[in-house]
Amino acid sequence: MKTDLTDTTSSKINKALVLGRRAIGTPAVGMVLTLVIVTDEENAYDALKAANEASREHPSRTLVVIKRVSRTPRDRAQARLDAEVRLGADASTGETVVLRLYGEVVDHAQSVVLPLLLPDAPVVVWWPVNAPSDPANDPLGALAQRRVTDTYAAEQPIQELTARADAYTPGDTDLSWTRITPWRSMLAAALDQVACEVTSAEVEGEEFNPSVELLAMWLADRLKVPVRRSKSGGPGLTSVRMETNAGPIVLDRPDGSLATLSIQGQPDRAVALKRRDTAELIAEELRRLDPDDTYATALRFGLERLDEEAATTAPATVVDTVVETVVEDVVETVEEKAPAPKPAPKKAPAKKAAAK
User: Where are the residues of the annotated region Disordered (predicted)?
Assistant: First the structure.
């Protein structure tokens, strides 16, 4: 069941939800949380599809906030809120409200969303793209217990990961961290099978993949050993190798689907380690709504390591300036000490021919 509301208010949207539940014969509210998706028109369809699939495991009221950018001052003066209410089969097992904000309403999205939140239920805000630099201090993020971002969707994922570490607040999480949950579980289980001491590790994956960086941070933080980061053609994470005093432990996944676990003294084992889609990642994040302390520790460790490297490494611009200055001084000194060239000898004037 779909209901379109043009130039509406939050009160009218709530009334449409009540009438819609009565029309389909489910007057009671059976949702366990409110999921707020903040996105643009281009990515709204994929995000809502993932949320609907995740709602089969976590029935929720999904609020999709689409901020329409005003192109002219006249458009900005025309503040308007349009809504699309979906219930029943059109909203999977929950309720869906698609909110399109125009004009000045864009700057007050929290005032539109607040009356639509389920009472006495947790709130999760998810930014599939264009997440704010500080999610906890964002007006919509301040309404939530959990704030989900995805650094992999950023233009510069590694720089975005550093910003996430700098502005971390309990309740923040990242889908790039969720993607490595099977890897962390498999590596921990492998170490439980062998009584050994890890001396070093190596993580191999795509060059600008934040999940690879997060896994390396987690290993370095937990094992207290140096972790080498190497590049591969992907897809995503491709291999983890841990050197131990009992032999190497290798988890290799070259095709993004099936991995091979190799432990010294044991036969190789095939492990299902496929790359998961967004719906599975969101469903996992909705299973626990308390702060993820392991993620916070790995982020802080990575930020401290980056700060140490920046403090011990001279900026390239300074080095280049010093080199250029030294070269210029040497050139000037050589030119001053070089002997002046001797003037060329003058030619004698030609004799006049004898008169006849």
Answer: 333-356
> Which residues, in sequence order, are CB contacts of 253 under 8 Å at separation 6+?
237, 238, 239, 259, 260, 273
Q: What is the DSSP letter of 88?
A: G
Q: Is 173 helix (H, G, I), strand (E, B) or coil?
A: strand
Distance between CA 62 and CA 98 in Å, rounded?
Answer: 8
According to DSSP, the residues that pair with 126 across neighbouring strands are: 37, 148
Q: What is the pairing mode between strands 80-86 and 60-67? A: unpaired
How far is residue 240's CA from residue 261's CA, in Å, rounded to a whole number?
A: 10
Rounded Cα distance between 198 and 223, Å, is 7
User: For residues 248 and 241, is the Cβ–Cβ distance under 8 A?
Assistant: yes
**What stretch of H or E contains 275?**
none
Closest among 171, 178, 185, 181 to 152, alpha carbons compared: 178
Contact (Cβ atoms closer than 8 angstroms) between residue 221 and residue 297? yes
Residue type, 15: K
Q: Which residue has the tokens 């993949």?
A: 209
pTM of the model: 0.81
For 154, residues 6+ apart whose C-beta sits below 8 A from its C-beta are: 131, 160
CA distances in angstroms from 134 to 10, 149, 166, 310, listed in the order given: 27, 11, 9, 23
Q: What is the dihedral of CA 296, 302, 305, 309, to 10 degrees?
A: -140
**Signed CA dihedral, 295, 301, 302, 304: sign only:** positive
Average pLDDT score, the chain: 83
CA distance 148 to 37: 10
